[in-house]
Design goal:
Strand order of the largest sheet of chain A: 11-10-12-13-15-14-21
Radius of gyration of chain B: 23 Å
CATH superfamily of one domain in chain B: Thiamin diphosphate (ThDP)-binding fold, Pyr/PP domains
Helix content of chain A: 25-40%
Structural class of chain A: alpha/beta
Strand content of chain A: 15-25%
Strand content of chain B: 15-25%
CATH class of the largest domain in chain A: Alpha Beta
Distance between the termini of chain B: 65 Å
Shape of chain B: globular
Structural class of chain B: alpha/beta
Oligomer: heterodimer
Number of strands of chain B: 14
CATH topology of one domain in chain B: Rossmann fold
Order of helices and strands of chain B: HEEHEHHEEEHEHEHHEEEEHEHHE
Largest sheet of chain A: 7 strands, mixed
Number of helices of chain A: 20
Chain lengths: 618, 344
Amino acid sequence: MATTTDIPLPKLKREVIDRAVIRFAGDSGDGMQVTGSQFTNTVALYGNDIATFPDFPAEIRAPAGTLPGVSGYQLHFSSNEIYTPGDAVDVLIVMNPAALKMNLADLKANGILIVNSDAFAETDLRKAQMSSNPLEDHSLDKFRLFPVELERLTKVALDHLGLDAKSVSRCKNFFALGMCYWLYNRSMDSTVRWIEDKFSKKPLLVEANKLAMKAGYSYCEATEAFQISYEIPPAQLEPGLYRNISGNQALALGFITASQKSGLKLFQGSYPITPASDILHELSQYKDFGVITFQAEDEIAAITSAIGASYAGALAITTTSGPGMALKTEAMGLAIAVEIPLVICDIQRGGPSTGLPTKTEQADLFQALFGRNSEAPIPVVAAATPSDCFWAALEASRIAVKYMVPVIILSDGYLANGAEPWKIPNLDEIPAFPVNFATDPVDFKPYRRNPETLARPWAVPGTPGLEHRVGGLEKQDVTGNINYEPLNHEKMVRIRAAKVEAIAQDIPDIVPAGDPDGDLLIVAWGSTHGSITAAVNSQRELGHRIGHVHLRHLNPFPRNLGDVLKRYKKILVPELNMGQLLWLLRAKFLVNAIGLNKIQGRPFKQSELEQKISELVL
Amino acid sequence: MTTTALPVLTKKDFQTDQEVRWCPGCGDYAILSAVQSVFPELGIKRENFVVVSGIGCSSRFPYYMNTFGFHTIHGRAPAVATGIKAIRPDLEVWVATGDGDALSIGGNHTIHMLRRNVGLKVLLFNNRIYGLTKGQYSPTSELGKRAKSTPFGSLDRPFNPISLAIGAEATFVARSVDVFQAHLKDTLKHAAAHKGSAFVEILQNCNIFNDGAWTGITEKDARSEHVIQLEHGKPLIFGKNRDKGIRRNSDGDIEVVQLGNGIAESDLIVHDVHHPRPFYAFQLSHMEERPDFPTPIGVLRSWPDLPRYEDVIAKQIAEVQAKRGTGDLAKLLRGGDTWQVEAR
C-alpha cells in the first residue's frame, strides 16, 4: 500500500449550493427507477425539498440498448421550497448510448455527464443509431464528461463473491448511485437498509449491492474524479414529521383515512391499468384495515362491483385510467340514477385509445364531466400535487357520502408516479364525516330528500322494513317507483343537476395565490400546479401583478370564481390538453381567456410558462 | 340461549304493489310465482333478501319482489351482486337474468362469478330470444334461427348454458322449466340450500317472439319421452314407460339403452350430483345435442366443498388482522422512512 504522507492531498473543493437536478437514464432493465427512488429517499430524509419525474417506456423490456427502451428518473432537490422536477439537468448519469442520445438535450452546458463507458462498443452505438462514438468525437466537449467503466469496476469489486455474471452486471446501477452519494455528500445508510430489507432472503445479493454502492463511493474518493463535491443544506420546510409520498400512495392512504373518518368499510373494485395499478397494489396490502380489494374481470365489473358494495353500505371506489373510464361510463350513469356514493379515480394518461400509457396528460376533463349518455352530472375534484392526492381522496369521499353521488377524482401519470415530501397530518385535525344509514321504517320513502343536500337516504339491505327497489329506469321522486311521465322525468333530471350544484355550498371561496387582482390571472387544475407556482413566483419577482387560481373543484366550480375572473386584465389557462378548462371558462363565464396547451405526454417546463406569462404581461 | 322466532312469512309478503308488466301468457309469471312461493319457506328474514337483475324482460323481476331489489344495467348483475356479497356475506342474494343478459353482454361476468363461487343464486330465464328489444335471435337460439335481425337464419352456434356453467367450474348447476311448477320449486329449494354459486337455467316460453321455444320438452307426452329428470342417487331412467336409461360405454362415453333383454337398472349410471370433478355433469349437459338422447332437468351438479368467495375474502382479512393486529392509521401514515423538520 503506497503511503501518501509526502504528497499532500489536493484539497477537494466542496461547494454549497441551493439546488440540483439529477437524472438517471438507462435501459429499462438497468434499474434506473430504483436508483432514482433510492437517491430521492436519501435526500428527502436529509431534509431537502424534492420533486421527482420518473419517465419510463410502456414496454416492460424493449430490446436492450435501443432508443425505445430508455427509462429515466429525474430528481430536483433543494434547500428551498421547490415545485417542479426542474427544466434542465445538472447531473446526467447514462448507462448506454441510447440513454445518452435520448437525454443529452436536457443537460445544462458545463453540466456533469457520467457515462458508463463499457457500453459504448460499436454494437452498442449501432443499437442507438449512432455513427460515431460520442466519447471520442468531441461532441460532448461542452459538458464535464466522466466516462466510468461501470461494468468492469463493478465486476472487480464483486469478483470474490462468486456471483454469476448477469447478477454482477445488474449491480452497476448501485455503483453509479454510490458515485452520486459521494458527489452530493450523502450518507448511504438508508439505501443500505433498503438493500438489506429488499434482498433479505438472498444474502449474497445484499452483499453484492452494498459492495457495488460502496465501491462507487470509494471510486470517487480514491480517484478524485470529480475534483468537486456539493452540499445542499436541508430545506426550511414547515416544522413537522415528514415522509416521501407518491400520488398513488397518497390516494390509497386518503381512502383508508376516509374509511375510518366515515366509519365505513372500504371496497375497491379495480382492473389493472397503467398508471393506476399502484393504487390497487397499495390498498391490497392493507387487509389489516379491513380493506376489500377486488381485482375484477374487467373495468365494467370493477365499477359495478363497487356499486354493489356501495349499495350494501361500503365506501366504494374504483380506480382506473382514461380507457377504463370509457368502459365505466354506463355504470356511472347507473350510480347517478340510483343516487349512491361512489368514488371513481381517473389517473389520466396520453390518449386517445391506448395512447401513451406511461406518459402524462390532462385530456380526460371533458370525459369526466360529459362522458355519459344523457344528462348525467358528476362532481369532479382534481389533485394538484402528489401529496394533495391524499386530500382529494378525502374530499371526494366526503362529497360522495354526504350528497349520495358518484364523484370523479382526476389525477394523472405525473402525480401518480411523482413524489414529494409530505408533512404527515395529525389525524385529530381531519374532521370525521360519520354516515347515518336509514333505519326508520315509518313512512320510509327511498327518494325522499334531505332539503339541504337533496341527498336521498342510504337504506342498505338487511334493514327491517326498508325493503325497496332501485334501478336505472327513471323513477318517481320520493317513492322511487318506475315512472315514465314527461314532467316527472324533467323534474328528476333537474333534481340530479341541482344536487350536484348544491355541493358548491360546501366549497370554500377561492383565494388566488399571488396578487388578488392585476395584469394576469392564471387558472389551472391538476398536476400543472408545481410549474405554474414556480413560474408565477419568478414573474412576480419581476414586478408583474399575477394571480394564480388552481381549481380543486371542477364541478361544481367555487361560487366566487366568476367574480375572481373579473379582477384581472387577462386570463391564461395552461393545460396539458387542447384547452378543455379554457373551453369551460369561456362557455360559462363569457370571458376572453386564452390557453397555453402542450400535448407531448410531458409536464410543462417552468420556462415555457414564464415565456407565455411574459408575453402576456408586456 | 334465547332464540328469536322468525316471523312466519307467506307468498303474499313477497308480492309488491307494482303492476306486473310482462306480456300476458309470458313464462316469467310462472317463475315469479314459484320464487314467491319458495322464499317464505327458506327461513330467512325478508329484509335479508336482495334480488339483483340486469336488463331484459326477466330483469324486471326485482320490481315484483317485495325484498330489497336492484335493477342494474345490461349484463352486470353478477358483478353488482358480487360487490354486495363481499360487503354483506349474510345477505341472501338472488340474480334474475336472461339468455342475452347472462350469456351475451354479461357472459364475462357470468363465468367469473361462477369460477369465484360467489354465494349467489342465479336464475337464468332462457327463452332463446331477445324479447325486450322485440325479437332478435339470442346466444341460445338454435342455429339457423329466423328472427328480426336474421331474416335468412342465424349463423352462430348456440351456447348450452349448462355446459357453459359447468365449464366455468360452477359448483351448483340445475335446470328446470317454467311450466313444471312443482319441479321448478323443488329445484329452487335445492339452489337455495347451496352455499356457493347456484346456477339455475329455467327454460321459459316467450309467447310473443318465440312461442313454443320449448314445446319439444313441454308438450304433453314430450316430458316423459324427451326429458330425463335427474335425481341424486337414482339411476338415469326416462321414457313414458320408464323403459329407457343411460349407460356408460366401455370408452367412457354414455349411451341410451332400452331396458330389458338383459339390460337391467343396475347397468345404468346412478346420478351423483356431488362428483367433485365436473366432467360427468358436462357429459349429461351435452345429451340434448345428440339424437335420441333426452334433455336433462333437475340438479346436474352440486359440489358443496368449495368455500364461498365472500367467506375467503373475510377469512383473509381476519388472518392478516390476527397476524398484524387491526390497522393503526396513524402508524400507517408514518410508515416508511420519516424525518423531523424542526422549527428554526
